[in-house]
Amino acid sequence: MEYCMEDWPEPIINVQSIAESGDTIVPYRYIKPPSHRPEILKSTPQEQTIPVINLAGLEGDEHACNATMHEISVACKEWGFFQIVNHGVRPELMERTRQVWRDFFHLPMEEKIKYANTPKTYEGYGSRLGIEKGAILDWGDYFFLNLLPLSLKNHNKWPCLPETLRETVEECGGEVVKFCEKVMKMVSKSLGLEEEYMKRVFGGYGDEGVGVTMRANYYPRCPQPELTLGLSPHSDPGGVTVLLADERVQGLQVHKDGAWVTVQPLPHAFIVNLGDQIQMVSNAIYKSVEHRVMVNSEEERVSIAFFYNPRGDMLIGPAKELVTPARPAFCKPVTWNEYRLILRKQGLHGKAQVDSLKPS
Ligand code: OGA
Ligand code: NI
Fold this sequence. Notes:
Elements: H1 15-20, E1 52-54, H2 62-78, E2 81-85, H3 91-105, H4 109-112, E3 124-126, E4 141-148, H5 165-190, H6 197-201, E5 211-219, E6 231-234, E7 240-244, E8 252-256, E9 259-262, E10 270-274, H7 276-281, E11 291-293, E12 301-309, E13 315-316, E14 334-335, H8 336-346, H9 352-355
Parallel strand pairs: 1-2
Antiparallel strand pairs: 2-10, 3-4, 4-5, 5-12, 6-11, 7-10, 7-12, 8-9, 8-11, 13-14
């Protein structure tokens, strides 16, 4: 059956309007089955935490540089999820970007729904992923926009209020793209590939090269946070994700060795994670990592995710340098456009999509 991607299967209800109605119970559409609910154990101390990498090491002498590269490759292999400090983006700009999105989500609903999105491109203000009728929904609203390629960037689809939003997102987006390129170089080198490798296979150079998108997430307070999730378990489908998280409110959890590890964002750090396309190019030497978002009853949470992706028509598959008799290709190449379409229809389902590429 052909899916209709022009509109949602059901009317969209913004989670913010449910949260602000003052109701003390979560509507059934947001209630996860018992096995998928978060365990909110406030008193248990965390045993593990994601690695922190200080990029200042790369500016140091050869010894410091090698040590930092080693930390990066260990973090990519063992976690696929880490925080980076001294990444080169100004703290003031990060704070301004977070604030301008917080202010956007606090605008009246009439202002926001002018940008209501559809599943065709997802650009704009929305509250769900996937078009499965009757699906259980997540406790969050978002705004999604394109930064690259330039032919897809359209300021008219970005909020016109707050007045400084467009320039702030433009400035922060530009800086984050430069940072993503640094990360792609580090990832390439740590796999023993030449530094430009990832960028090249992603469709690389010029304004019509790689794709970069941004999703501002808004997780309102939730009266029964133990029954739902702000974002269901998923791995990010693209290359790398750079997250500007809320420093005051926790929520993000990373799946590691069968447990969920809560991330405590460091001030002015970026949280970086590897997506499915890096798993594919690296022939699963690096794996994309499942993560989810918990909500809470005390405070809303805002996070901004930047996604660095291949160009739509690029066929992405294992680098031939990383395929050996001992490690045969773990998947066939697939274009980013095709890959992304499945997610746009089906929504978030853990690592099911990248796992489905494995030969059975
Ligand atoms: C995402 C994501 C995490 C967060 O947008 O893909 O995983 O903390 N966000 O909002
Ligand atoms: Ni994610």
